[in-house]
Design goal:
Elements: H1 7-12, H2 33-44, H3 47-59, H4 63-91, H5 95-103, H6 109-141, H7 151-169, H8 173-200, H9 203-206, H10 216-240, H11 242-245, H12 251-284, H13 291-295, H14 301-323, H15 325-334, H16 341-354, H17 357-360, H18 364-393, H19 418-436, H20 441-445, H21 447-463, H22 467-474
Helix pairs in contact: 2-8, 2-12, 2-14, 3-4, 3-10, 3-12, 3-18, 4-10, 4-12, 4-18, 5-6, 5-18, 6-7, 6-14, 6-15, 6-16, 6-18, 7-16, 8-12, 8-14, 10-18, 15-16, 18-19, 18-21, 19-21
Length: about 475
């Protein structure tokens, strides 16, 4: 008589399982409070963070209005961040596996792919910014490089290849990058701030520029989409944060590390972007929102080189941590038996080029109001479904084994949960009505908030009746 396969052997044989998506065992959950604080420091200190804040100055805000908008937006996005992080730390599972509990073991591919495509766009943006930094450094050190027409595309491709190399090295490279970049990058930011203060003649002239808005109504019309853009900036990681908290030593470690690292670092580095952009009005006569352009105007070419190296390290770190880990796992979730983490990462790298990041960064309007606000209308509804299902419907109780097999608690209807998909579609549809019907434009300006609220309420209305059944089965 042959021996029956064990539960672990059955799980490993499932088409929904691979080692990259498996629950992290307790022995490997070693990320401390410092690791999560350092993760947010290194992810926040980067050029897109700077451009987010500097774009507000270029759009007409004064420095107080811009810094308050950044701080408020990051406090808001920290809430769903910590809520979604709980499942990763509790069960050791990544985002696409967590999504199976609400969308179904196959339906989870829908939110996973939406999140992955946004990450691919971000990957391309960061790679383009890194290429700009390399190009600016070469122009400062080798002036003849300015005459080379293909200089910027080649630099972009070189930095893209560097990212591919890190992806092939694996996720543990992230912790190494954190250790060498976090303190150094904060120092670079302070140096840039002190340079701007010196050139502008002090903080007084730097921050003296008034708001361009003549009334509260004018300000509010700019503030709402700007705030949504700030929330949208990290709405991506607010979904896939279980990809990182699955390695947490405890819930307290990940919560405290994130609460300390995210709002403070984003606000601090945004202040640098705000102050330096304000100073460019005094120094150069007009606002320059792109820090690569500002740094390229430093008088000392070696200072340019050092600054660009610092920004390159920051960009590389945040690109791998924020824009490769999630889509790599999500593409792997599409076909776990064939697509590994590394293969998913390479798919991300390829799609990052296809999404033409140079168009997104053409000006601050397309970056904040087009890119950030636009994709937040897709991600807010996903967060609404996940939070409602995990905390309200299931009371934080999951059966991890059933997340990896067909026919279990999360099978729903042939692997899909139509209620979750309908709630997701409702949230997205309402958020984007404003693009089709101008009197309701405010719905688009509030895309993330509107989408999250609508999908949460619709999902609860549809799934709430099943709450006792779900809780009893999982208990």
């Amino acid at each position: 008589m042959s021996a029956q396969p064990s539960a672990s052997e059955t799980l490993r044989a499932s088409s929904l399982y691979n080692e990259d998506l498996a629950p992290v065992p307790s022995a490997r959950r070693n990320w401390s409070t410092y690791n999560y604080a350092a993760l947010w420091i290194t992810m926040s200190v980067n050029i897109p963070t700077y451009m987010l804040a500097s774009g507000m100055i270029a759009g007409g805000m004064n420095w107080k209005q811009a810094i308050a908008t950044v701080f408020l937006g990051n406090v808001v996005v920290l809430i769903p961040m910590l809520l979604n992080a709980h499942a990763g730390a509790a069960y050791g599972i990544p985002f696409p596996i967590f999504a199976r509990s609400s969308f179904g073991v196959l339906g989870a591919n829908v939110p996973a792919v939406l999140r992955a495509l946004v990450a691919c766009g971000w990957f391309g943006i960061q790679a383009w910014v890194g290429g700009e930094a390399i190009n600016a450094m070469l122009m400062a050190l080798v002036p003849v490089w300015k005459n080379f027409a293909l200089g910027l595309p080649l630099c972009f491709f070189a930095f893209w290849l560097l990212n591919v190399f890190v992806v092939l090295r694996g996720v543990n490279t992230i912790r190494f990058l954190q250790g060498i970049t976090a303190p150094f990058l904060l120092a670079i930011g302070l140096v840039l701030l002190l340079w701007a203060r010196h050139r502008a003649g002090g903080f007084g002239p730097m921050l003296a520029a008034p708001s361009k808005f003549q009334s509260f109504g004018e300000f509010f019309r700019f503030f709402v989409p700007a705030l949504t853009g700030v929330v949208g900036f990290w709405a991506t990681v607010a979904l896939n944060i279980p990809d990182f908290t699955r390695f947490a030593q405890s819930q307290r470690a990940q919560m405290l590390g994130q609460a300390l690292g995210l709002p403070a670092t984003m606000t601090f580095y945004s202040f640098i972007g705000i102050a330096v952009t304000s100073a460019t009005v005094v120094i150069f006569g007009h606002a320059i929102w792109d820090p690569v352009v500002v740094l390229s105007r430093l008088e000392n070419p070696f200072a340019v080189a050092i600054a660009m190296i610092g920004l390159l390290l920051a960009t590389l770190n945040v690109n791998v941590a924020a824009n490769v880990v999630s889509p790599a796992n999500e593409f792997s979730n599409l076909y776990p038996r064939r697509i590994s983490f590394r293969t998913g990462g390479l798919i991300t790298c390829a799609l990052g080029i296809a999404m033409q990041p140079w168009k997104v960064l053409a000006n601050y309007g397309s970056y904040i109001f087009g890119w950030l606000v636009g994709y937040s209308g897709f991600l807010g509804p996903i967060a609404g479904v996940l939070i409602c299902d995990y905390f309200v419907i299931r009371k934080k109780i999951l059966v991890p084994e059933d997340l990896y097999r067909r026919g279990g608690l999360y099978e729903f209807s042939s692997g899909w949960n139509p209620r979750a998909l309908f709630a997701l579609a409702a949230g997205i549809g309402v958020a984007f009505i404003g693009l089709l019907y101008s009197p309701l434009r405010w719905l688009y300006d509030y895309a993330w908030f509107v989408g999250l609220l609508v999908s949460f309420l619709v999902y609860y209305a549809l799934q709430g009746a099943l709450r006792p059944v779900a809780a009893a089965a999982e208990e």
